[in-house]
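Shape matters. Shown next:

___
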Amino acid sequence: MEFQPQYKITMSYTLRSLLRTVSRKLQVRSYAAEAAAPKEGEMAFTFAAGNKVFYDKQVVKQVDVPSFSGAFGILPKHVPTLAVLKPGVVTVTENDGKQSKIFVSSGTITVNEDSSVQVLAEEAHPLENLDRAAAQEALSKAQSEFNSAANEQAKAEAAIAVEVAEEIVKAASA
């Protein structure tokens, strides 16, 4: 389904406001630590959203991402790829084995030939910051708006809000 440019702006605003509603306000600003240059066989990872930079050229072991062409894992020396994020959870496995799980609403994934990876999300929040009750409430509201949509534009915007809210509820329940 192709949307008019003015509708894309409205949808982007709707997605941001939905995520900000269900995310607890625990944002902390800090200076990025200087990252060491990755060695052969390592993967430099950058993950940023409008609300926070999660990783800045840090070396990680693996990144699992949800995309519209299917969920996939990224390891060092992954084939160069450009994909579109769909609402879901990005899982980052750091070199020490620790995993970080971050919900994303949308965005892009770029895997480069030099094993560097960039995830640029429209909106992103760690799973521990998601409020399940608020997410369930947002889902109910989005479903109600979908059912009462008066025209195709409203129906399309509500359908996107329902999809994102369903994924937030699923992520918050994990």
The mean pLDDT is 83. Strands lie at 43-49, 52-65, 72-74, 81-85, 88-94, 99-104, 107-111, 116-121, 124-126. The longest helix spans residues 152-173. The chain has three helices and nine strands.
